[in-house]
Structure formats: structure tokens, C-alpha cells
Amino acid sequence: MFLLNGVKADTLSLQDRGLQYGDGLFETIAVRNHQLEFWQRHMQRLLDGCQRLRISVPDPELLLAEARQLLDGRGDAVLKIIVTRGQDGRGYRATTDSGSKPSRILAVNDLPDYPADNQANGVVVRYCDTRLGTNPALAGIKHLNRLEQVMARSEWQDEFIFEGLMLAAHGRVTEGTMSNLFFVKAGILHTPDLSHSGVAGIVRDVVLKLARKQQIPVLIGHYNKADFTAADEVFISNSLIGVWPVWRLEQQRFSVGSVTKKLISAVDAACLKDVTHEAI
Amino acid sequence: MFLLNGVKADTLSLQDRGLQYGDGLFETIAVRNHQLEFWQRHMQRLLDGCQRLRISVPDPELLLAEARQLLDGRGDAVLKIIVTRGQDGRGYRATTDSGSKPSRILAVNDLPDYPADNQANGVVVRYCDTRLGTNPALAGIKHLNRLEQVMARSEWQDEFIFEGLMLAAHGRVTEGTMSNLFFVKAGILHTPDLSHSGVAGIVRDVVLKLARKQQIPVLIGHYNKADFTAADEVFISNSLIGVWPVWRLEQQRFSVGSVTKKLISAVDAACLKDVTHEAI
pLDDT class for A7, splitting at 50, 70, 90? Predict the structure, then answer.
């Protein structure tokens, strides 16, 4: 089910720059108990991304109204919002002035049916061979150029492996194909710097904020495989899973540690707020 | 005008992975005097790209028949062929088996109205600030993840500047936003290595082949701005322009040199063959 610029639709113009160049961005939002989790943060990231790509910023109030319309009373779902630059411009050259007309696409799908066990006991992850490109101009933005993630995700078929970790230049372990990445060493929470590669996840930001609130020391830096091998705890985050521990990374096992447990509870509590109307 | 999987269409499914992830690739082919220039080379690159991305390979004979149908007797045009992975798979995970159904999109548009002077006297180019990402898994492929080019092309509005040159990691001058790049120094033809970034252009390959045929020594390597500053001749290439000299790069002027002239003639001659049926 889709809404395209406020109208029910199944298709998009073949001239849309979203298709032609991947010229746009998206948000994936968990809807639980009729709440659009971390709505304000998703809107802020979408607006920041639009500004960086010089795409006209959609009205968050309009998006919320359209989301409610598309959800049609459904309490639990995944809401995906795509904003593309629309049809303006010729070739790579885009119309960046305020007269441009972005395409606004909303989609609602079922929440994934993840085993409840994953959050309590953790998941298995692996390293991918496909590398993340390095580009400060695009880093952090959840844009539509996601071939690297598609290629990385195609590296394994084993259903037992939940996620693949991707390295950027200089062997820097940067993120999962669809999640952000943390490790704990000697009580300090570490997460990879995303100023050159990767998507700055909403839950990643929430984790960092809640960790600081709880006086857990935080470091954001560049880490390689050896740093993860030496870690006490490893976990991943995204908007659909929240925080999940990693219990196996390749052949190495981790236990679900106290910092991870503390942050799982804190993020879950933050999710329970009606963040459609209230920022945490 | 579009054909989608052989049928006239204006729109594509919103579920198509071409839109969702930029999960696909394309070719831009010049049609002149009813000839699809370098058709066999375009098909070879498209097939190579599909294999690298594990997208089912479309039938070149079918594409040619559809191109002729869409052209409908038009002798001069730009034919764009997009192949996406279609709708298969869930999230980044794609169906890569032979049962997947790619989307095949053909579009016909007018040839750009370039000044005739450009090939004789050259064009003005600049350097872009937007960098090219580094990714050996995707390098060379003309894929749909083109946000870097869109951002680079948005850096200037001056109609007098035809092209922007993009640097990759380590300050390596790699390509234009929509063209490949060459320089001549002391009689040796140089062009940037594209094994980590960039699109391996059809005319670039033709230029390299024809240069070797004419005993012009060729080097493919990593070059920075200083190498271009010290060059005797600079030129760019793509499927619509063929080969055009650069007469100004930022503040530096170049004359249209003998190697460039020789290669312009050779590529033009190669274009005149009916390459729809005959490889050069």
C-alpha cells in the first residue's frame, strides 16, 4: 500500500530521479501500539538529509497526516517514507531551487516477524567482503543509493546469520548492512565514526544520548576487526529491532553484558513514549 | 517515451528495487543515421554489469528489437536502457537466482543540441568538490547509484562550463560527472585507472583500442591535479559527445593537440560504421 504525493498509487513516473539516479532518501519507522516511534527524530533526519541534498523539504505535518491516513487504524506496521527530487532537471543536473517538486512516497508493511529470543540472547553476525564507499558529502544520509548494502546482503543465505558487518576504507568496521554497531570495552561504549561512510541511525543517536544520561562513557572513533575481537560486549541497533546483542561474530562468542542490558531497557522505555508528539 | 518490459508505459511499480535501492544499471546510446552506435560494446558492458550485480541478463536481441520499436523510424536520438533487479526479494536481500524478473526500461529522447564548435575548439571544465566514493565491487559499472554525480553537477550553474572533474580518494582525478578523462604528456596518452571508482565508458575503451592501433603509447594509472596541470593536451569522452578537447581547465588553457585530433578522427570514423551489427 502506497501513497504518492497524498494519493493512493502503485506506480511512479519512469522519469522520476529516484529511479533514474537514486536521487532521494528514505526513513523506516516502526509503528507499535499506534505510535510512530521516534517520529520527531525521523523527521529531523529527513529534513537534514533533504537540506544536504538540496531537495525541497516536505512538511512533517503533512507526512504525519498521510501516514495516519495510510495506516488507517493499524496499530503495528513498518512505515517507509521515500522522498525523491521528482522529475525536475535534465541529466545529472537537478533543479535545486524552491520551485522543484519532490516525490513523496509512503508505504506501510507488516512488522518483520523476528524471534523474541533475539533481544534476550543475541544474534549471529558475520563480516562482509563488500566494502562501504567513502564520501563525506553523502555520509550519514539514509539516501537511495544502496547498492553496496544489496551486494553485501547477497553474500550469505544462511538464515541463522542475522546481519553482516561492513568495513570502509582502512579496514574500518563501520556498520551493518541495515544496522549500526557498538561495542563495550572496559565499561566504555564505542561506536564507529560515520563522518565518511554509513547511515547515522535514529536508534544509534538514542543509544548515545541515553548512555551519556546514565554516565556510561562514550567514544566515537575508527575501529578495526581487532577492536571488535577484543570487545567485552557487542550490539547492533536499528529502528525495527531497537537494540539487539551480538552473541557470535564469525567464530567468536560474546555474552550479553551489563551495559548492553542497561541500554536495551533504556531504549525500550524511550520507545514506549508517544514520540509522535514528544521528543525524548 | 518508454517501453517497460516490451510494453509502452509511463510508470514503474513503486516496489521496484530500482527505485527502492538504486538496484540496477543503465546504458546511454547515441542513435545517429539510424545506427545504434557501439551497440555491441554497450550490450557487453550491460551484460558484464548484470553478472557482477547478479541480475538476470536481458536478451540483447530482444533489447535491439524493442529499441527499434521505440525508435519507430527515428534516425537520431538518445536511447537509454535501464535494467533493474525488479521486485524480487525483501529488504536489501535480493533474489539472485535465475527465477528473478528484472525490469527492462527503454527510453528515447532527443540528442542534446551541443554547439558544433565544441569538438573543434574544445570545452571549459572545472574541478568539483564532491568526491567519488571508492568501491572495487561497484567500480566500472554504470549503475543507478548516481547521487555523487548529481551532487557534483549541482556545484555550478555557469552554462559556459561543460563538465566537472571528480576526484576520488588520495586526490586522484578520476572522471567527469558524465565523461571519461584523458591527458597527453610527451606523446603518451594517459587515462585514470577505474578499478576503484568511476564508470568504464564505452568511448573510453574505443579510444584506448584505437590509440594502441595507431601506436600511441597508453598509460592507465593514478593521476592528481598536478599531472593534469603539466599535461600537453586534455580531452574528455562519452557516448554522446565522442571525444572533445578541453581548452580550459580552471584557469589553465590547453591547445587542441595532435594526439587529440588524431583520436577524434579515429573515433568519428569508428562511429560511422554500422556498429549495430559490426564490432570495431
Answer: very high
Best of A16, A20, A80 to mutate (most B CBs within 10 Å, chain B) = A20
Q: How far is CA B137 from CA B97, B134, B140, in A?
A: 19, 9, 9
What CATH code would you report for B117-272?
3.20.10.10
Q: What is the pLDDT of residue B99?
A: 54
**CB contact A5 to B (< 8 Å):** no
C-alpha–C-alpha distance, residues A243 and A210, integer Å: 12
pLDDT band at residue B134, thresholds of 50, 70 and 90? confident
Domain locations along chain B: 2-109, 117-272
ipTM: 0.94
CATH T-level assignment (fold) for domain A2-109? D-amino Acid Aminotransferase; Chain A, domain 1 (3.30.470)
DSSP class of A56 = P
d(CA B6, CA B63): 9
Nearest CB neighbour to B153, from listed A93, A134, A177 = A93
Banded pLDDT at B97 (limits 50, 70, 90)? low
Closest Cα to residue A261, out of A230, A216, A220, A228?
A: A216
Q: Is A177 an 8 Å CB contact of chain B?
A: yes
Cβ-nearest to B21 among A107, A138, A144: A144
H or E stretch at A238: strand A233-238
Helix (H) / strand (E) element for B40: namely: helix B39-53
**Which among B15, B19, B126, B199 is the top mutation candidate for probing chain A, defined by the most A β-carbons within 10 Å of its own β-carbon?**
B19
Give A245-264 pLDDT, tens digit per residue: 999 999 999 999 999 999 99
What value, to the nearest 5°, has the Cα angle with vertex B54 and ends B53 and B57? Answer: 105
Band of the pLDDT at B190, cuts 50, 70, 90? very high
Residues from chain A contacting residue B137 (CB–CB below 8 Å): 129-131, 148, 151
Nearest by CB to residue B144, choosing from A11, A22, A129, is A22
* B165-172 average pLDDT score: 95
pTM: 0.95
